[in-house]
Amino acid sequence: MIAGTEWIVDANGCRPEALQDLGLLKAVFRRVVTDLQLQVVDEILWHQFPPPGGLTGMALLSESHLTCHTYPEFGLATINLYCCRSRPEWPWAECLRDFLGAKAVTVHAIERHAATPDLPSLRHSLQFALAKES
Amino acid sequence: MIAGTEWIVDANGCRPEALQDLGLLKAVFRRVVTDLQLQVVDEILWHQFPPPGGLTGMALLSESHLTCHTYPEFGLATINLYCCRSRPEWPWAECLRDFLGAKAVTVHAIERHAATPDLPSLRHSLQFALAKES
Hints:
The structure is a homodimer. Chain A contains 2 helices and 7 strands, in the order βαββββαββ. The first copy, chain A, is an alpha+beta fold. Chain A has a domain at 1-42 and 98-121. In chain A, strands 2-3-4-5-1-6-7 form a 7-stranded antiparallel beta sheet, with helices on one face. In chain A, strand 4 (64-71) and strand 5 (76-83) form a beta hairpin. In chain A, helix 1 packs antiparallel against helix 2 (92-100). In chain A, 47% of the residues are buried. Chains A and B meet through strand 1, strand 3, strand 4, strand 5 and strand 6 of A and strand 1, strand 3, strand 4, strand 5 and strand 6 of B.
């Protein structure tokens, strides 16, 4: 039995200044929460690491969790969404391009299992190239 | 370039009452944090869902995050540890057997990437059966 899906999203080629912009990261969270009709429990936890560090955001959801870590030095944002209820696929790549300037986004969807699975639980792994490499 | 490893751990066959015991779940977090020398930033967020619901815990780490969700109705605990620094493998199965009575534990280790990977990023996937099925 499947006890939810975890989306593991790595966004590369992001603008370093976007990855240090708390307002932008909050906007990404709002977009995900609104579009996927998630319920945030309590306050969302945010932490800004000293420059040149990035940001961490963690939302405890009634559906499980949403987290984000940014690495301005690598142009990288890593996001997890774990949903114990079924959710439609969502345009991670386009959203992260629009908000953070991402040029390549990898999305893994992994099923979490109640009872040991007989099948590999990597549901799919997708890569999106959003702009030509220079 | 690898920007850390995520361990996705599903523990099945746990004692339902253990999965509703906040003290036990806090002890699991303490064990992970201490053994792997992680640094917790701020307070750990805990939420107890109304019975027969389970517990959620989220720790913001300077190394990324540690989360846990429990599903007493399925005997299931789902844990994520995301570490942007290298960490040794750790005896998840034995720990979750000892604390929660887990009978089968699945551990996926996934590498998070700065720059789109050429190789599949599922590093390994292990299953541990801790007790014979009755």
